[in-house]
Design brief:
InterPro entries: Thioredoxin-like_fold, Thioredoxin-like_sf, Thioredoxin_domain. The protein is of the alpha+beta class and 221 residues long. 47% of the residues lie in helices and 14% in strands.
Length: 221
């Protein structure tokens, strides 16, 4: 697994950089994460960030996943373990699943901003598309090419072009997301992705059968 803390980009770096990226729709600049929004993290209200949740609110087991959209290990989990987890435990009301994004780099941040653009209803569907196509969009080239690929995914998921561009230009939201991620990762002592918090206990990435055994032990307890 990739070590988290050695690769974390601070909120100040992400928020202060003006990338001047062109939209695929025209020549106008798309300044992702504008310098105009740079501010002290202590001043940011992270309560405005919506938790992305699947499953019954009163499920006996809660699992929080910390994952980066640019993390290959996370993509592998979502292509295999997550699908089994959803079928066996989330959809059956036994597990409440919370997904929290981790930002190793600006591309993962942009992907998160795009995924959240259409709200909770489409978030997990867009997340599936991002992980399924990770090897394509995350390696598309420079910032312009990656934004173009992310925009294609958003449009495919039914996000309107103007709304999508507005989401990608929302520097205040970008900085809030980074601060939110840092607060959560620090509180849960997350140092790698994917990481999971199972009923309050941090567990490492592991084969699905091993995770299943831990879930069943919680259910039996």
């Amino acid at each position: 697994m990739t070590r988290l803390m050695s690769r974390v980009l601070t909120a100040a770096v992400l928020a202060a950089a003006s990338f001047g990226i062109n939209t695929v729709a025209g020549p106008s600049a798309l300044p992702l994460v504008s310098a105009a929004y740079a501010q002290d993290a202590a001043e940011i209200d992270t309560s405005t960030i919506v938790e992305m949740v699947q499953g019954a609110e009163d499920a006996p087991v809660t699992i929080i996943e910390y994952a980066s959209y640019t993390c290959p290990h996370c993509a592998r989990f979502h292509e295999d373990g997550y699908k089994k987890l959803k079928e066996e435990f989330i959809d059956t009301g036994k597990v409440k699943f919370v997904y929290r994004e981790v930002y190793f780099d600006r591309y993962g941040l942009w992907a998160s901003m795009m995924a959240r653009c259409a709200g909770p209803e489409k978030f997990f569907g867009i997340t599936d598309l991002l992980f399924k196509g990770q090897s394509d969009w995350a390696r598309a080239g420079g910032p312009n090419e990656i934004v173009a690929e992310l925009r294609k995914i958003g449009l495919l998921a039914g996000v309107e072009g103007e709304a999508l561009d507005a989401c990608l230009q929302d520097g205040a939201k970008a900085q809030t997301l980074v601060t939110w991620y840092q607060e959560n990762a620090t509180a849960d002592k997350v140092e790698a992705t994917p990481s999971f918090v199972l009923n309050g206990n941090l567990i490492r990435n592991q084969p699905y059968d091993d995770m299943k055994a831990l879930i069943e032990a919680e259910l039996e307890g």
